[in-house]
Amino acid sequence: MRKLGRFGRNVISNAGGNAIHGGLQLALLLVLFQLLDDTACAAFITATYLIGVLEMASDFGGRLWATREFSLSQTPRLVLSQSLRCKLFYTVLSAVVLFLLPRNTLTTSGFLLSVLVAATQPSTDPFLWFLRGRERLDAEAMVVLMSRIVMATGMMLAALMGSNLTELLLIWLTCNILRMLAESRLAVVRPLFEGSLPNDARSLKTTANTIASTFPVGVGLVLVCLFQRATPFLLEAFATARDVKIYGTAFKLVNTSGLIATAVFVSSFAILAKAIETNDVERIKAVIRRKLMLVTVVFLPVCVLGILFSVPFSHMFQHHGLREVAQITALLMPGLYLSCINMGLKYTLNAYALNWLDVGAVVLGIVVLTLVTVFHGGLSWRVAAALGWGLGETTLLVVRLGLLWQQRKHRGVPIGVILGSVAALMLMIVASR
User: Fold this and answer.
1) In terms of C-beta density within 10 A (0-12 exposed, 13-18 middle, 19 or more buried), how is residue 226 classed?
2) Closest C-alpha among 167, 172, 54, 43 to residue 106
3) Cα–Cα dist 51/114, whole Å
4) CB burial of residue 204 (10 Å; 0-12, 13-18, 19+)
5) Alpha-carbon dihedral of residues 76, 79, 81, 85, nearest 10 degrees?
6) Are 225 and 363 in contact (CB under 8 A)?
7) Label partner for 291 (CA 20 to 30 A): which of 215, 240, 339, 401?
8) pLDDT confidence of residue 9
9) Are 232 and 47 in contact (CB under 8 A)?
10) pTM
11) CA 27, 343, 266, 124: dihedral to nearest 10 degrees?
12) What is the CB neighbour count within 10 angstroms for residue 209?
């Protein structure tokens, strides 16, 4: 039997950990959906989406920069030092800017706790960036999964005992801090603490250069994260708490499964970066095609089953709110596939350093999403938001494919398979209505 390669081991371990985490998140969400009233549940959902944006804003491109540098550098301690200073700068800046987002159900204390939770999340953790750069996603998955199991279990028990939002967020924050302490003791991260830093390692010029080099990547990542959560934020600003609760739950159900696709792209990023660095054209094509085809093989059947069975399955629970959630979930399925493919195209553009072009693509997608959601005519806010997300993702797909084609970087992208899959899902949605 052929031995499983490092890429396969990384994908399986990271995707498996994300799948279990997704299941825990969904279980927690359903418990809170049943126990909390509309306003409290809407506040928690808003906090989770805000944490997602703050995560991206906290590392602001530092994760991709550090992953690349850790994979190539012989001085990991210097990379860690630069990553921490860059992360601190962008965390403070993003907290100030994102405080201006409209919030009707989330209090100021809830926002501040969300900032602290986001700053300690796995995606903003330099220890884990090091493991990704060294292609040790198996070790990352083990540590992160254990902390997520403890966190989800603790929050569910606290919810059953009647805890409020502040207490739930404090449990989340505590688990994140304990995870980081555990990581610092692992043998695999020991190189980060060995050796001495160069004399100029703490110079302002070096730090400023690092911040500047991550800025275009960070802008793109934050805009993508805002794009992914724009519809819940629009409903938080304009619609009712009930709309936020129903749509936010459906969107969380759909978006959580995308964590598995992210595992594929994260696992392949260091490999793709090395292939581009050495100008290995055949290797580049193989990596890009493999990751996009793998996501299609996994997610196309999931989206088809979601369209066909979300609503019938919800009837088993005899709960009117869950039936409403299922209706929106089915409408979101084409957007789920588009979102997974778009994330793969984004990582490809980042690997080619086409960051500002990607920023323009995301801005256009946000404009389309916002216009469709806000000017929804006779449609309900929930339906308009679902359609807006799907059309925004479609816009993003077309623009990113066009950019790769224009830059002659499209080799390896299975364009026919992607467009055919999107068309089939949209036809299924129309036929099912």
Assistant:
1) buried
2) 43
3) 6
4) exposed
5) -160
6) no
7) 215
8) 59
9) no
10) 0.71
11) -70
12) 12
d(CA 258, CA 263) in angstroms, rounded, equals 9
Helix (H) or strand (E) holding 236: helix 204-238
In angstroms, rounded to a whole number, what is the distance separating the alpha carbons of residues 376 and 161?
40
Which residue, chain included where needed, has tokens 């009837």? Answer: 315
pLDDT tens per residue across span 58-101: 877 777 778 777 877 677 888 888 888 888 888 888 888 878 77
The alpha carbon of residue 398 and the mean position of all alpha carbons in its chain are separated, in whole angstroms, by 21
Length of the chain, please?
Answer: 433
Helices within 315-354 (DSSP H only): 320-351
Residue type, 119: A
92-123 residues labelled b (16+ CB within 10 A) or e (exposed): eebbeebeeeebbbbeeebbebbbbbbbbbbb
pLDDT tens digits for 231-251?
Answer: 988 898 888 888 888 898 888
Burial pattern 283-310, b for ≥16 Cβ within 10 A else e, equals: bbeebbebbbebbbeebbebbbebbeeb
- Backbone angles phi and psi of 288, in degrees to 5: -65, -45
Using CA atoms, how far apart are residues 125 and 102, in angstroms rounded to an integer? 28
Sequence letter at residue 21: H
Instruction: Please name the residues in contact with 398: beta carbons below 8 A apart, sequence gap of 6 or more.
Output: none
Answer whether 410's CB lies under 8 Å from 404's CB: yes
Cα–Cα distance between 319 and 326 in angstroms, integer?
A: 11
User: Encoding tokens for residue 396?
Assistant: 């993003």
Residue 177 phi, psi (nearest 5): -65, -45
Say if CB 109 and CB 166 are below 8 A apart: yes
Query: For residue 188, what is the DSSP state?
Result: G
166: which 2 tokens? 């502040």
